[in-house]
Design brief:
This protein has 109 residues and is α/β, with parallel strands linked by helices. The protein is 33% helix and 29% strand. The protein contains two helices and eight strands. The strands form three sheets. Strands 2-1-5-6 form a four-stranded mixed sheet, covered by helices on one side. α1 runs antiparallel to α2. The protein is globular.
């Protein structure tokens, strides 16, 4: 874990920093690299009669809850990496997975 879902983010741009972001998250959370998933969700922002009138990524991070300190570090990693590819502003939101409701290969964690 974690699963990072990027809304309003260009997949090509994200791929430029994906290795660095994954490295930093892995180092921070001490989790297996293959458990870190970056996914781009196609999003179109509609406002005032225009489509895609925003350049402000929203990132949902689903993971098993960790300390607030680690969460703060992961949010900072995501935000700073997005800044490197031109996204000055971004929002990060954490969703906590409950191990009792998480199944891997049909088995509860």
């Amino acid at each position: 874990m974690p699963f990072l879902r990027f809304h309003s983010t260009d997949a090509g741009k994200l791929s430029e920093i994906s290795r660095k972001m994954t490295d930093l998250i892995q180092e921070t959370l001490q989790c297996p690299r293959e458990h870190i998933v970056l996914e781009v969700i196609h999003s179109e922002i509609v406002c005032d009669g225009a489509i895609n009138c925003g350049d402000w990524p929203f990132v949902e991070i689903s993971y098993f809850q960790r300390s607030r300190d680690l969460q703060d570090k992961v949010a900072q990693i995501v935000s700073s990496c997005l800044q490197e590819i031109g996204y000055i502003d971004s929002d990060v939101y954490f969703l906590y997975l409950d191990p009792r409701n998480y199944y891997e290969n049909g088995r509860s964690m």
